[in-house]
User: Fold Dynein regulatory complex protein 12 from Scophthalmus maximus.
Amino acid sequence: MPPKKKTKKTMKKIQERSDNDLEAKYRRSVLDIAVLQDHIAVQCESVRTVQSDRVDLRRRMRDMEQTLQHERQDHRDVNSDFSRQYKTMQIELTNKVKRLEKEVSRLNEELALCQEELRKERREREQMEQEKDTAMNDLQHKMDNMETDYEKILHDTLDSLTSQLPVTRQRREDESTTLHQHHKALLSEFGLNARDM
Assistant:
């Protein structure tokens, strides 16, 4: 069979169908383009947001790195300062320990000298106390002997005086009587009576 000849009507239908297909394709393409443009706009906005976030993050990261560097430097400075203070304190403490050890050694020597001096003083004091006790005992013994001697002398003297007392009394009475008589005689010579006086 030979091919059918296309009629004008068929041709026209084909043409219209073709135009409809083209128009549908065109509309679909326009819609796809609009969707793609929206998608690209969303993607561009997303990219801009991501870039902005990236810039912010980089800036924050730089700030944090600087802060970290400052903190590290501060930490190094603090460590350095602590090390210096520690060394200074260690040197001061070592010097103080040496000074105190010398002081302790000197004080121990002084203590030993003082203890020796104290022992010497105690020995001398004990010796002096013994000598004093001996001297006091000797003096007490001498005083006891002197007391005994004085008592003996006193008793002898008292005995002697007691024995001489009657003789002395008699002699005094005799002398008194003689003196009395003499005064009486003198008064009578002057013509006075002794009883009137």
Summary: Residues 8-188 form one domain. The mean pLDDT is 87. Helices lie at 8-189.
